[in-house]
Amino acid sequence: MSNALVNKYNIPGPRYTSYPTVPYWDNTSFSLSQWKTSLHKAFSSSNSEEGISLYIHLPFCESLCTFCGCNKRITKQHGVESPYINAVLKEWQLYLKLFDEKPIIKALHLGGGTPTFFSPQNLKTLINGILKHAIIAENYEFSFEGHPNNTTKEHLQALYDVGFRRVSYGVQDYNDTVQKAIHRIQPFENVKRVTEQARAIGYTSVSHDIIFGLPFQSLEHVKETILKTKSLLPDRLAFYSYAHVPWVKGNGQRGFKDSDVPSGELKRKQYEIGKQLLAEVGYEEIGMDHFALKSDTLYQSMISGDLHRNFMGYSDSKTMAMIGLGVSAISDSWYGFAQNVKSIEDYYKLLDADTIPVYRGHILNEEDLIVRQHILNLMCRFKTSWTPTYLYFDALPDVLVKLEEMEHDGLLLRTKNSVEVTPKGQPFVRNICMAFDVLLQRKQPHTQLFSMTV
Ligand SMILES: C=Cc1c2[nH]c(c1C)Cc1[nH]c(c(CCC(=O)O)c1C)Cc1[nH]c(c(C)c1CCC(=O)O)Cc1[nH]c(c(C)c1C=C)C2
Ligand SMILES: C[C@H]1O[C@@H](n2cnc3c(N)ncnc32)[C@H](O)[C@@H]1O
Ligand code: SF4
């Protein structure tokens, strides 16, 4: 990969876990009642056929990792667990009231923060409280994010007992210097232990999250981390580009200087060496920043064309309705998005008043729906087309003009009715999506909102 290309295309850009992207939501024409109507419509038309997905945000962590871009609250007081679980179950009740039939749960994901901050018993109470009012779908998928430093056999067993078969562990990097800089001391032995324990209990997919581009991280550090990862052979892994977004409120990206963060050129080398080392033992690249063994369902869904992308990253399949419970969680009714308030205090206050705690959202118009489909096609299948003709939209000719230079640089191939990302263009798929992102084209942000694309 030439440095010239990396430098040319390394610009701030969205990660496209949604379209429109969160900063471009039209919150002024969004209301709670519209959201309820939109979700009700999605639920009624899809629950009996495909079920729904649930995301539950569990925001507590015992200590702050200084690279982290997630919404979390640092505390060592475990007294916070029960009130939070009660609040989430109350929120679930408010949603249940909207529905005329029992929800069928196809996918359930516990994210954070640190779900394993909660005791095994409290996690069971939470899940049983959710499932009591629902039907579990036939091919259900329950997954959670575990912290290797505090996941115990008891956590793994308790969640297994209520249906969990997938776990992803935050690994990030194994080098001591990098671990010190990101304030996350986490020996390999911890990751090895929890990976082996999950397998022994019967989990069918263990995933590791790794990041390149962290402060002080060299090419050697990335190699060392990937080699150690390979020795445990996780079924999947996320290989994220470090998103340096110190302006996001409360994310605590400090303790190192901007100049301690690797350049775009070094990041691209780190990515390429990682990808090469992973390919040697059979990992296949899945869309952007994910890898899976051929035996994993994520790979199989990419081959069958079912791969989907949403706020949780990539998934095997999609449901039309996805409900996010907990602070800052985002829900998706296919025709609309809604996000919950971010502070725990505000969340409790709204629930005490029997109000679904969303504070912003967006209802998709016709153009949004078409552009979203193109972006999903690019992110999940590296190609898109406007046959069938309903995927044509008025601004498409302008988009195609924007693609000319990327075509010239060898990042994509165009036919009369389609765009296909070349292998050379795959690392720049976010840039290609940005050409389709008509809202971004119409209104460039005044301040930096997004992380860099490389
Ligand atoms: C497990 C933690 C999560 C990660 N991403 C999300 C969660 C719950 C989902 C998420 N993160 C952001 C948004 C946008 C809404 C918002 O509150 O602003 C959503 C839905 C914010 C965000 N997180 C990261 C960045 C760079 C941003 C800003 C917007 C952007 O650049 O797109 C960093 C980041 N967080 C996570 C990952 C995997 C990641 C970067 C690779 C985890
Ligand atoms: C859920 C996963 O999200 C990843 N994650 C969290 N914050 C960031 C960031 N700023 N940049 C890249 N990845 C991040 C971690 O790898 C974590 O394990
Ligand atoms: S990386 Fe995980 S443990 Fe660390 S602060 Fe973020 S959510 Fe908490």
Task: Provide the fold topology.
Layout lengths: L2 H7 L22 H19 L1 E7 L1 E2 L11 E2 L6 H16 L7 E9 L7 H12 L3 E12 L6 H9 L2 E9 L3 H6 L6 H14 L3 E8 L6 H14 L3 E6 L22 H16 L3 E4 L3 E4 L3 H8 L3 E3 L2 E3 L6 E4 L4 E3 L3 E5 L3 H9 L5 E6 L2 H16 L1 E3 L10 H13 L3 E3 L3 E4 L7 H8 L1 H5 L12
Parallel strand pairs: 1-4, 1-13, 2-3, 4-5, 5-6, 6-7, 7-8
Antiparallel strand pairs: 8-10, 9-10, 11-12, 14-15, 15-16, 17-19, 18-19
GO molecular function: 4 iron, 4 sulfur cluster binding; coproporphyrinogen dehydrogenase activity; coproporphyrinogen oxidase activity; metal ion binding
EC number: 1.3.98.3
Catalytic activity: coproporphyrinogen III + 2 S-adenosyl-L-methionine = protoporphyrinogen IX + 2 5'-deoxyadenosine + 2 L-methionine + 2 CO2
Low-confidence stretches: none
Largest sheet: 9 strands, mixed
Q: What gap, in angstroms, lies between the N and C termini?
A: 12 Å
The amount of beta strand, in percent, is: 15-25%
- CATH architectural arrangement of the largest domain: Alpha-Beta Horseshoe
Top-tier CATH class of the largest domain: Alpha Beta
Q: Could you say how many structural domains there are in total?
A: 2
GO molecular function, one term: coproporphyrinogen oxidase activity
Binding site for S-adenosyl-L-methionine 2: 67-69, 113-114, 172, 184, 209, 243
EC number: 1.3.98.3
Protein name: Coproporphyrinogen-III oxidase
